[in-house]
């Protein structure tokens, strides 16, 4: 950690260049002998990213940022705050502390938090920033989480762990057993130190695969922001043997779209099918990730277009956790139909359709954007159709 970053001159330079062309800065020599151009650019780029992702850090003076990669791997402030609703008690240990956004959030809910991070520089950054943020109930320990836990004689109300989804060669991995640390291998150790474990995994981990690898899963939380799944949270409770509850949430502006269920409920629920009616419904990304394809239609009294489309329809407009469209016209998937309608620009989505968005745009010569939405899908009669729509906001 280069403490010269904290000088008034450097901080002023960083703030003055938040809207500058980064490439031009890279081509120039650093105006400070104690800092390289690369170090300056890292601070500028990360602070720009922090404005949306972790606004409390952005608004706080004399924060030192890690590089863009480290910052991209950390939780957003929004998802970190959500985690505080899942924990409580006197003590929590964060075994993969990183930049410290999750530990910061936990410190507002839990009396004592231990932030363990094996990267010494990242640990030092977190400690410095916690001081700037005036947080006094977090202890930072520069150590590897699992070995530290093995040596610790303490018991904790909660253990939090966010295993790295990259292997030793920095390639992405998708199975829990391939992550670092290997939670599956160390689960007995974790339960010997706490009755409650909170695990963060990436959005690509299949829920059924995770459930096969993990025992004692009480809840699974699928968190999306702006219809983009950011993380999946697994709550494990020692000796818990009942079926896991799956909770989905999509943060859409100031609204939280929520839907919860159990997999056994989805398995015994059947859908009804219909040709497109007046309105079209597309579930948000967290629901689609959860696999509640029959339950969500049943719950909102909607009919599906096709078993594999995961699009729903109704004659009456209802409030729905996802995108809602009014169907203006159903069209054939042909150049002739589009030429007749005079459509040259549209937002395109596909569900259960053989051609990709890129192929469709090329085939029909359609530009991107505008207020028109085209949904390319398959109906219950196995016909390829195009639904010409306008989005409805309710």
Automatic annotation (TrEMBL):
Keyword set includes ATP-binding = no
Q: Tell me the GO molecular function terms.
A: methyltransferase activity
Gene Ontology annotations of biological process type: methylation
- Residue ranges the record marks as coiled coil: none
The yes or no answer to whether the keyword Nucleus is present is no
Q: Domain PG-1098 ferredoxin-like, which positions?
A: 279-321
Q: Which parts of the sequence belong to the THUMP-like domain?
A: 322-389
* Record key words, sorted: Methyltransferase, Transferase
Write down what this protein is called: SAM-dependent methyltransferase
Species name: Maribacter hydrothermalis
């Amino acid at each position: 950690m280069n403490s010269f970053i904290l000088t008034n001159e450097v901080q002023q330079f960083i703030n003055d260049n938040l809207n500058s062309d980064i490439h031009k800065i890279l081509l120039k020599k650093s105006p400070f002998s104690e800092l390289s151009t690369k170090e300056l650019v890292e601070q500028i780029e990360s602070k720009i990213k922090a404005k949306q992702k972790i606004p409390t850090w952005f608004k706080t003076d004399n924060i030192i940022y890690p590089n863009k990669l480290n910052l991209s791997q950390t939780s957003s402030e929004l998802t970190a705050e959500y985690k505080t609703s899942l924990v409580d008690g006197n003590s929590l240990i964060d075994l993969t502390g990183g930049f410290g956004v999750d530990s910061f959030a936990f410190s507002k809910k839990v009396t004592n938090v231990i932030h363990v991070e094996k990267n010494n520089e990242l640990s030092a950054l977190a400690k410095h920033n916690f001081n700037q943020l005036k947080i006094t109930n977090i202890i930072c320990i520069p150590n590897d989480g699992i070995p530290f836990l093995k040596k610790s004689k303490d018991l904790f109300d909660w253990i939090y762990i966010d295993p790295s989804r990259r292997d030793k060669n920095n390639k992405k991995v998708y199975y829990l057993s391939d992550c670092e640390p290997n939670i599956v291998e160390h689960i007995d150790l974790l339960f010997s130190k706490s009755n409650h474990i909170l695990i963060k995994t990436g959005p690509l981990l299949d829920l059924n695969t995770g459930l096969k690898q993990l025992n004692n899963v009480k809840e699974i939380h699928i968190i999306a922001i702006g219809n983009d799944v950011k993380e999946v949270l697994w709550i494990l409770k020692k000796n818990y043997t009942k079926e896991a509850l799956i909770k989905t949430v999509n943060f859409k502006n100031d609204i939280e779209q929520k839907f919860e269920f159990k997999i056994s409920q989805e398995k015994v629920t059947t859908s009804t099918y219909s040709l497109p009616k007046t309105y079209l419904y597309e579930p948000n990304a967290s629901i689609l990730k959860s696999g509640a394809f029959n339950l969500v239609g049943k719950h909102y009294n909607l009919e599906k277009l096709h078993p594999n489309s995961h699009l729903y329809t109704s004659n009456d407009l209802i409030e729905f956790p996802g995108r809602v469209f009014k169907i203006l016209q159903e069209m054939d998937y042909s150049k002739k139909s589009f030429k007749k309608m005079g459509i040259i620009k549209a937002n395109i989505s596909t569900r259960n359709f053989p051609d990709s968005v890129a192929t469709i745009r090329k085939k029909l010569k359609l530009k991107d954007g505008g207020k028109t939405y085209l949904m390319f899908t398959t109906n219950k009669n196995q016909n390829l159709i195009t639904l010409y729509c306008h989005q409805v906001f309710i």
